[in-house]
Amino acid sequence: MASEDDRIEIDIEIDRDAGFVGDYLLYLLAAASDAASADFHAHVREQGLRVPEWRILACLCDEDGQMVTQLAQLALMEQSHLTKIVDQMATKGLVKRRSDERDRRRVRVYLTAAGRVLGTGLVKKAREHEMSIVSRLGATDAARLKAALKDIHAICRGGDDAAGRASSAPAELEASLS
Amino acid sequence: MASEDDRIEIDIEIDRDAGFVGDYLLYLLAAASDAASADFHAHVREQGLRVPEWRILACLCDEDGQMVTQLAQLALMEQSHLTKIVDQMATKGLVKRRSDERDRRRVRVYLTAAGRVLGTGLVKKAREHEMSIVSRLGATDAARLKAALKDIHAICRGGDDAAGRASSAPAELEASLS
DNA sequence: GCGATTAATATGAATTCGCATATTTTTCCC
DNA sequence: GGGAAAAATATGCGAATTCATATTAATCGC
Question: How far is the CA of B26 from the C1' of D23 (A)?
Answer without folding.
Answer: 39
